[in-house]
Amino acid sequence: MNDSDDNGARRPRSAHRGLRIVLLAKALAGVALAGVLGMGYWLETRGLTAFELASELRRGDAARFEWRSVDKKHWQAVSDTPGESVEVTDAREGTSAGCPAGMVRVKGAFRRELHGAATGEVERLQDAACTDWISRDFPARCRTFDREKIATEVAKLPTQAMDYCIDRFEYPNVLGEYPMIVATFREAEATCKRGNKRLCTENEWTFACEGEEVRPYPYGWTRDTTACVMDRSWRPFTEGALSPRDGKTAREELDRLWQGEPSGSRGGCRSPFGVYDLTGNVDEWTRSVNAKGYTSILKGGYWGPVRARCRPATRAHNEDFVAYQQSFRCCGESNAAVPAPPPAPPVASLVGDGGALASAALAPSPDAGAPRATVDLEAEWTASSDDELEAIAKTRAARCSPVPAPSRAGAPVALATVALVVGAARARRRR
After folding, report:
1. Are 424 and 383 members of one domain?
2. Same domain for 17 and 78?
3. Model confidence over 189-229: pLDDT tens digits?
4. Pairing assessment for the beta strands 330-333 and 159-167 based on DSSP bridges
5. Number of folded domains in the chain?
6. DSSP letters of 8-22?
7. What angle in degrees, to the nearest 10, is found between the helix axes of 405-430 and 13-45?
């Protein structure tokens, strides 16, 4: 049977069938394109890569990590391999003279700001010495600092003699174990006190990180995305998921968000004194040296796209604030009668050279997410505010918009095409 075109000519039905097939193929292609765009946006809002999504699908409902509840308040991911004994680590590192086991001796001249307070003066001085910015927007990240310019400027600042001990790693301070997280400032203080230690002041933490040279990063003057656990994609958290803290919902939320690594996994994330993981991995509570504002100060930054430098601090949270990436380390008094050890030489890795842990124990988790090159981070944060909470809120709102622009453009086009094809097919059948 034949059909007629507009000029009355007869045309085989097979030609119409071919046209319908072409239109249907185009419609399916449009739907597929809209699906790809929508999937890309869905991954972005959750801070996932395509590789991580594939891992999630293969795993199903299984947890990414095994989790240990501590005092029904805190959580710790369980390492595949037992951590190294403190005695073995101390003997290999050689930085503990005059300190209790597991601690590092920190002695020298700290470059302080006015009256020993933290005013941001040194951080601004360092910013002025940046020769290669990754991004000037909050949180501003500099790729390279002018070492000589910083040395010239900090030489004008007064010094404060310091001599104390600090935990080599984040609590529980064991090489190869994951840090304990979800701790408030008050809980961190209490935990240190139970161990006959105290929570570090922010100046003690800063000096242990930057040394007498006032390094912007614990490892030097050039940002290295592989030295410490940092610059990983930010994954939006679920409001209220950590209440109650010891519940199943809290554990599942932490399992989804966690991108940290076992303590000491990165040999390059080492300060001049031999203290590890001061920047990146997890935020660390310290005690403020300022007379005004909160006593609770977070230092170091965590695994996300943050500053991850020695001087900056987060001062926006009270002593009872709790979040998924918070941890701490402790400080203590040194024995001044014991000579301090020499400056710690660079270490490529804690694995080998007498280390008791196998390389697999300290390897990054395949689900943790690989560090991203700095060139990919320029548009990661778009907020210009110096308030961290406001910056995170703006970024989160932008990423969690209900309908992304690509979907608004692509989906209706695809659906309209499908509707036209279906309508045309029905019209043909009615003739």
Report:
1. no
2. no
3. 999 999 999 999 999 999 999 999 999 999 999 999 999 99
4. antiparallel
5. 2
6. S-EEEHHHHHHHHHH
7. 160
